[in-house]
Specification:
Elements: E1 9-14, E2 19-21, H1 24-31, E3 38-42, H2 45-52, E4 90-98, E5 101-109, E6 114-124, H3 126-144, E7 150-152, H4 155-163, H5 177-192, E8 200-202, H6 205-208
Helix pairs in contact: 3-4, 3-5
Length: 218
């Protein structure tokens, strides 16, 4: 029987938003790209709470420089990225079985290729999924107060986001009503929020290969 991995809690003293996080990916989102980030993992929530309430030097400075502190057994970048691609970023992609058909999308943190969010499957199209994935990423980063790029390999979806309008040809009916409610919400979010600090970049598939958020179903 495989041994169950013990849960860890990550304390961020200095980062985009200090606090306690329950996954390594969330910890990296708060610390990657933040000058002088200070963070460490703990084996229990109570330990983490006590650590957050105390000076970080009591936990991290006595054994290592801040820049070298990493949760045990983990690395910043488990895979290399192409030249020109920023590791402290999210990549998004969608997949659809049929078009329209069963659609789903997800967002992946490039620093360690971990899935940050995933939605679906639901009835829709690939372009709609690509559009919703970008908006999902923008909303998540704004909620967390993090500024980092979002990569997408869909020119259509990027254009729709810039125009703040999902220009799909899919018919709105009883079968697609739930999906269109998500689209309405995404368009409203784009109109009502400032996300200029989060650039949406085109993933260059010809130069860099498939985007890391790809579902691998081609």
């Amino acid at each position: 029987m495989a041994r169950q991995q013990k849960k860890k809690y990550y304390v961020v003293w200095a980062g985009h938003e200090p606090g306690i996080y329950e996954s390594w990916t969330e910890c990296q989102l708060q610390t990657k790209g933040f000058p002088g980030a200070v963070f460490k993992s703990f084996s229990s929530l109570e330990e983490a709470r006590q650590a957050l309430a105390s000076p970080p030097q009591e936990h991290v400075y006595r054994h290592a420089a801040v820049s070298s502190v990493r949760p045990a057994g983990r690395q910043d970048d488990v895979t290399s990225l192409p030249t020109g691609v920023e590791g402290n970023a999210l990549a998004v992609d969608a997949a659809c079985s049929g078009n329209p058909g069963a659609m789903e999308y997800r967002g992946v943190y490039l620093g360690n290729r971990q899935v940050v969010f995933r939605f679906g499957p639901t009835y829709g199209t690939n372009n709609i999924g690509e559009f919703l994935a970008i908006v999902h990423a923008l909303a998540l980063l704004k909620q967390k107060g993090i500024a980092m790029p979002v990569y997408s390999d869909s020119r259509n979806a990027i254009a729709w986001v810039r125009q703040k309008k999902c220009k799909t040809q899919l018919t709105r009916n009883a079968r697609t009503e739930e999906l269109f409610r998500l689209i309405d919400r995404a368009e409203r979010w784009l109109r009502d929020n400032d996300y200029a600090a989060t650039p949406v970049r085109k993933w260059d598939t010809a130069r860099w290969g498939e985007i890391p958020a790809d579902f691998g179903r081609k």
